[in-house]
Amino acid sequence: QVQLVESGGGLVHTGGSLTLSCAASVGSFSLYTMAWHRQAPGKQREFVASITGDYITRYVESGKGRFTISRDNAKKTVNLQMNSLKPEDTAVYYCYTTKGSGLWGQGTQVTVSS
């Protein structure tokens, strides 16, 4: 069964850092693009970062220079390192894989206090 499990969310002050992790039980993990999206209260889910199987990365404009996405194909994990966090980064963060028709994790809450 394909499954994504996120961890690492929490409460942090403005300027702080968090690293989110996603453990994927996905066959042929290295073939698929992995991504992080987020959804703030009352807002639509938005793209945050992605990384292809050959490590090409993309970021939301607001995350460039602050966020770093990485993956370990052997461990089937994808991480999102977030630095210099701002209150507007507060959201539920979701892991996503492009395998099949796409699959979402259950999400992990990130709260940045001002």
Query: What is the CA-CA span between the terminal residues?
Result: 40 Å
Q: What is the element string, with H for helices and E for strands?
A: EEEEEEEEEEE
Provide a count of the helices: 0
Q: Total strand count, please?
A: 11
Beta-strand residue percentage: over 45%
Poorly predicted segments: none
Which shape, going by the Cα principal axes?
globular
Average pLDDT confidence is 96
Largest sheet: 7 strands, mixed
> In terms of structural class, how would the helical and strand content be classed?
mainly beta
Radius of gyration: 13 Å
Percent range of helical residues: under 10%
Concise synopsis of the structure shown:
The chain is mostly beta strands and about 110 residues long. It has no helices and eleven strands. The protein is about 0% helix and about 50% strand.
Summarize this structure as a short list of keywords or feature phrases.
single chain, mainly beta, 7-stranded mixed β-sheet, 4-stranded antiparallel β-sheet, 11 strands, globular
Explain this structure to me?
The protein is mainly β and 114 residues long. Helix content is 0%, strand content 52%. It contains no helices and eleven strands. Strands 2, 4, 5, 6, 9, 10 and 11 form a seven-stranded mixed beta sheet that branches. The protein has a four-stranded antiparallel beta sheet with strand order 1-3-8-7, with no helix packed on it. The mean pLDDT is 96.
